[in-house]
TrEMBL record:
Record's keyword annotation contains Signal: no
Residue ranges occupied by any Acyl-CoA dehydrogenase/oxidase C-terminal domain in the UniProt entry: 232-364
Keywords carried by this UniProt record: FAD, Flavoprotein, Oxidoreductase
Protein's name in the database: Acyl-CoA dehydrogenase
Names of required cofactors: FAD
Species classification: Bacteria, Pseudomonadati, Pseudomonadota, Betaproteobacteria, Burkholderiales
A Pfam family it matches: Acyl-CoA_dh_1
Domain Acyl-CoA dehydrogenase/oxidase N-terminal: 8-116
Family assignment from sequence similarity: Belongs to the acyl-CoA dehydrogenase family.
Recorded GO MF terms: acyl-CoA dehydrogenase activity; flavin adenine dinucleotide binding
Length: 381
């Protein structure tokens, strides 16, 4: 499967690569990760100036109105740089939920700030008991005197501590895992009813556990009907496709580091890359990289599929391929580097850590293998 970016996309990718090489080098990334917030808000504004933060939005909300496949070059570069930026949580997850569920007034109020990088949003959905169940929500929402309030705990919210606003899922009825009764809300995290506990994921991505105790909330669009759960599903599908595309960039970085290392590392008077077994291993990594490229394209293209079951199957295929081949590439990068590959001072180990997080987001490989198998079996009958 081939994708040829147009002239504008090539220019954006080239400009983004130069910006990230200058402002998000591996050394600067390590310093940023060691800082209090764990991310560079100035770089986020620079990404906005290039138009990166507006890629996922329509022209009415300050974006470009492009097809999802046009996100690929930017996500590749962000993955290659191992960038600690809120593109997926803010510009993909939260923005998609607002675009699908929000009223026109809410969209106009919230989305231009995402495009301009003046507002960071976080998608507070995952809970401890979910175990990759896409719609599992135990947090509850109730009305008191005309004001909606939410009680519950959200776990591992990407950029949850840095967010200006939260898009929160909660139940007005139904059981955990049921589409019925699921609703979306906008929550101001600065209020007393919200407690954020900052944390870092294994790849240094900033996140937070968020406890809500009678937190005031604004309904995002309609409370009843299929709109909320469909918006949650759309956000997760867009996030999954974006994770596949970013994972491609991460694997490309791991592969490039490995090729450079085996060509320069000397053993017994010659580069270790001169050994046939090493060369074969690198060749296998290259084949896996091409499979990853196809998976990233398939995932983004699947977002345009109108049939929900077909779209779900294609996305599960993409995530399964990402998990299988990306794990191989990043794992072999460590094997061929040896001990140095896992040191904090070297980027190869950080590629493995970042890929592990992307693999776990929105369901890991075994989860999507099970979903795909069940879907195909049901279709056969």
């Amino acid at each position: 499967m081939r994708f040829e970016p147009d002239t504008d996309q090539e220019q954006l990718q080239g400009s983004l690569r130069r910006l990230l090489q200058s402002e998000a080098s591996f050394e600067r990334r390590r310093r940023t990760a060691a800082g209090e917030t764990g991310w560079d808000s100035a770089l986020w504004r620079s990404l906005s100036e290039l138009g990166v933060t507006a890629l996922t939005l329509t022209e009415d909300h300050g974006g470009f109105g492009q097809r999802p496949v046009a996100w690929l070059p930017a996500l590749q570069e962000l993955g290659y740089a191992l960038a600690l930026q809120p593109f997926i949580p803010s510009a993909v997850l939260a923005a998609t939920a607002i675009s699908r569920a929000g009223t026109p007034a809410q969209q106009q109020r919230l989305l231009p700030g995402v495009a301009q990088a003046s507002r960071v949003l976080a998608f507070a959905h995952d809970e401890a008991a979910a175990r990759h169940a896409a719609l599992w929500v135990e947090a509850t929402a109730r009305q008191e005197g005309g004001q909606w309030r939410i009680d519950g705990v959200k776990q591992g919210v990407l950029f949850g501590a840095a967010a200006d606003l939260l898009v929160v899922t909660a139940r007005t009825g139904g059981s955990p895992g049921d589409p019925a009764g699921l609703a979306l809300f906008i929550v101001d995290p600065a209020q007393e009813g919200v407690r954020r506990t900052p944390l870092r994921l294994i790849d240094d991505t900033p996140a937070a556990d968020i406890a809500l105790h009678a937190a005031r909330a604004e309904p995002l669009g309609e409370i009843d009907g299929p709109g909320p759960w469909r918006a949650v599903q759309a956000a997760q599908e867009a996030g999954l496709a974006a994770a596949c595309a970013e994972g491609l960039g991460v694997a490309e970085r791991a592969y490039a580091l490995t090729v450079e290392y085996v060509q320069t590392r000397q053993q017994f008077g010659r580069p270790i890359g001169a050994n046939q077994v090493v060369r074969h291993r690198v060749a296998e990594m290259r084949v896996a990289l091409e499979m990853l490229r196809s998976a990233a394209l398939a995932g983004l293209l699947a977002l345009e599929e109108e049939d929900a079951q077909a779209r779900s199957r294609e996305l599960s295929r993409a995530k399964l391929l990402l998990s299988r081949h990306g794990s191989f590439v990043t794992g072999q990068a460590i094997q061929l580097h040896g001990g140095i590959g896992m040191t904090a001072e070297y980027a190869a180990g950080h590629c493995l850590r970042r890929f592990t997080v992307l693999d776990q987001l929105f369901g890991d490989g075994p989860t999507h293998a099970a979903r795909l198998g069940a879907s195909l079996a049901a279709a056969a009958h």
